[in-house]
Amino acid sequence: MDIGGTDTSRLVERPDNDTYFMKMAELVSTRSTCLRRKVGAVVVKEKRVLSTGYNGAPRGLRHCGEVGCVRARDNVESGTRHELCRGVHAEQNAVIQAAYFGVSIKGGSMYATNFPCVLCAKILVNAGIVEVVFKDEYVDELSREILDESGVAVRKFPR
């Protein structure tokens, strides 16, 4: 079909904003060095990406692939004892990256491949994130309570 001199048969369907930003979070998750779960996060404000983060060891430290996973070694159940991990969560890294470069994320939205844990939920609330859009579930009822009580909007990304 020809519209005003443009051959529309070769146009690719343009993704909506949620799809666009969630695909970015999925791409960011491919940088994860975690052996158990690959997570990516993108902070967006006014349809612009402000920062990204993925889960893995702090900068300059050896990755879990090199030293092993403490949580796997000690059979730590998913969703518990978050402090028993070398890794920094994707959501935390996105907030840290923004702070490191002096970028305010107050009033922003976070797109994350997984629902945030309670530690990340508290950080997101204090960082001024107003919305969390997540793709995959992560069981953490306290996290849900905190996000709900704080007024942070939470939406599951429609598959």
Q: Could you characterize what this model shows?
A:
It is a single chain. By secondary structure, this protein is an alpha/beta fold. The chain has helices at residues 17-29, 64-67, 70-73, 90-100, 118-127, 141-150, and strands at residues 2-3, 6-7, 40-45, 48-54, 109-114, 131-136, 153-156. Helix 5 runs parallel beside helix 6 (141-150). The chain is globular. It starts with a strand and ends with a strand. 33% of the residues are buried.
Could you provide a short overview of the structure?
The protein has 159 residues and is of the alpha/beta class. It has 6 helices and 7 strands. The strands form 2 sheets. A 5-stranded mixed beta sheet has the order 4-3-5-6-7, with helices on both faces. The protein has a two-stranded antiparallel ribbon with strand order 1-2.
Query: Termini separation (Å)?
Result: 30 Å
The structure class reads alpha/beta
The low-pLDDT segments are: none
Number of strands: 7
Measured as a percent range, the helix fraction is 25-40%
What is the N-to-C order of secondary-structure elements (H for helix, E for strand)?
EEHEEHHHEHEHE
**Main β sheet profile:** 5 strands, mixed
Strands of the biggest beta sheet: in what spatial order? Answer: 4-3-5-6-7
Number of helical runs?
Answer: 6
Strand content: 15-25%
Summarize model confidence as the mean pLDDT.
92
Q: Per the principal axes of the C-alpha atoms, what is the gross shape?
A: globular
CA radius of gyration is 18 Å
Task: Write a concise keyword list for the protein shown above.
159 residues; five-stranded mixed beta sheet; 7 strands; single chain; two-stranded antiparallel sheet; alpha/beta
